[in-house]
Amino acid sequence: MALRPLHSARVGLCYNGRIITRAHHPPQEDADVERIASYLAQHPYFRHLGPPQITAVARLATLRTLLRGEILALEGEPCTTVYLLVEGRIRALKMSPQGREQVVRELWAPQPIYLVPALDGGPLPATTRAATRATLLGFPCDALVDLLAHEPSIAMRVLRELAARLRRFTSLIEDLSLRTVPERLAKLLIERAESPEPQRVTQQEMAIQLGTVREVVARSLAQFEGQGLIHVQRGTIEILDLDALHKLAYPDRV
Amino acid sequence: MAATAQGTPEINLELCTRCGDCVDACPSGALSMSAAGQLAFDAQRCAYCADCEDVCPVGAITLPFEIIIGHREQSGDGE
User: Which of A234, A237, A243 to mutate to test the interface with B (most CBs of B within 10 A)?
Assistant: First the structure.
């Protein structure tokens, strides 16, 4: 593929010899471009590209860092930038009319943020806030869309990500509409305990996965412990009665 | 049960800004800060309640759980 270098960041962003956006984009230091390129070379979307293409994509991106608690963007705003998380964690939040905040998703590297509104042109579906100090790469939406239109290999990887996300949300809808929090928690505990790749999990992470808040998770764990289903120690949740937990998690299979 | 290395909060000292918020938040006094700004942790006092995780402004503290299937007898031996 013919690839010409970026002529001037002041004119616009250039990929594969074409100017693809004229959005405001600060000129980048070469050191930043190198740093971004080295990250992209490991990223699932881009690692199959050759070094010149990686550098061209790196020139489309800007680095952004957030401290914990800083807002990345607000729900309802127009989408101008798609982000890739380089390090740290970002939480997507929805706010109820009564002001109750619900974390709907926790994102970590190398996940994309605001991919859907970048593609459908709609407003941002949720507010995003840094759960830890975080580093992100921002791509102007029109630059990303143009990149996908001209690089089917990247587009296919993005489609796979969206398909996996759709599958997760379908499962979540089923859980939220058909199961109570204790039932969902029982299912999560079994899945985590039986996972071939066990991963340690915090109560906050459990709450996000279950679509609830940490206090409810703590209460449900205490309830399970009172029923003799589990034993909670520092750093360990031991399942004592797997059969009873199964009956709770999958009542329709009993 | 005696605290194990796994049963203690994971504190990332590279992220920690020594703000002391976790020391104020800890209900059992397991965290303290020396005059020199050194964060100290007493595993015997820690109740693993996650209040420090909630309050840390830079996400330097996490209290993860490993979820395991126990092998103990169901008859109950009073532990």
Answer: A234
